[in-house]
Amino acid sequence: MAHVFVMDNGACTIKAGYATGKEPRQIPNCIIKAKNERKRVYIGDQIDECKDRSSLFFLLPFQKGFLVNWDVEHQVWDHTFGKECLNITCKDTCIVLTEPHCNFLSVKDATDEVLFEDYGFASALRTNASALSAFGYLDANPDERCCLIVDSGYSFTHIAPYCDGRVIKEAVLRISVGGKLLTNQLKEWISYRQLQVMEETYVMNQCKEDVCYVADDFEENMAIARKRGAANNILRHYVLPDFLNVERGYVAMPGDSHDGEQILKLNHERFAVPEILFRPSDVGIDEMGIAEAIAYCIMTKCPEPVRARLFKNIVLTGGNVLFEGFRKRLETEVRSLAPQLYDVRLIQADQPITDAWHGGSKLAQSAKLKDMVVTKADYDEKGGWRICRERFDN
To answer: Is 168 within 8 Å of 329 (Cβ atoms)?
Structure first.
């Protein structure tokens, strides 16, 4: 088979690289314009060349988790495949590309058309990120037959059960909470209470990653956050970057000196933002939290014989699982919702953000891949979208 190129095409970040590599390259999946450089457009990881990252304007190919702007995506892919980035020779390459669960047929067909007709890949596999994570986990744990992938990413949180390498489609659940919503919520709260930061998506996303954590007991943490002085061990200062002396914001204790630096005071926001993952109704989203959705998925949507195996193999992937305390809180809540006769075990992926890419890398090195891909010859001879739908969607 041709060289295999694995691309986890996330709504926020593309994780891409040849399957023989050790780590993928992480490329922002967007086009960026900077306020201070009006004539310059940054595509993907060209943002590293931008010196002042305040008030950035983002053009995104994804909206609400689905690929809707092919003009933007084409430019990002051109950059990713091009000489200045990964230098891919498409005609000699098999691509393994991820898409979201429950993707629209029109988007699927357009994706296949772009891969084969615009770029001319030798062969392709269009699959889900959770499928690659499941393959990687089950390959590393041959005694296990089932796992439940909890993928909490930029746009959504997906919960997908896999048995014997196949997804139980009717059991896949989606929660409309991801990293983007959490960052936007933090921006709104800070803008209302302290400083107007609604245009500072880039900086506030870093702030969220640096200071937020998942509380093991929300009410107890709220009680501490209401206290003053030394009794409040939750309050932190976040020093904002000025892009002259400070390239990235950082966390500081309230008593530290910040001469001439602009700071944000973060108190209950630190744990209230990630709490939305567990209680979406707090911000008006009428959906289950992650723990409740996991229990509902296994106990209601999955066959009884596989439930014990699924509870014992819950795999956490995606950027949001990196919040401090996430795994502990989720395990506690899932344990309280699961029947006592079942063991509950949560396994956080070693590298949650790139876990799907690593699973795809393992798949590329297995004999199974050749039976899963569609070749350019198949695409040309058997009706394009028909063979792709038959192979990829079943």
So the answer is: no
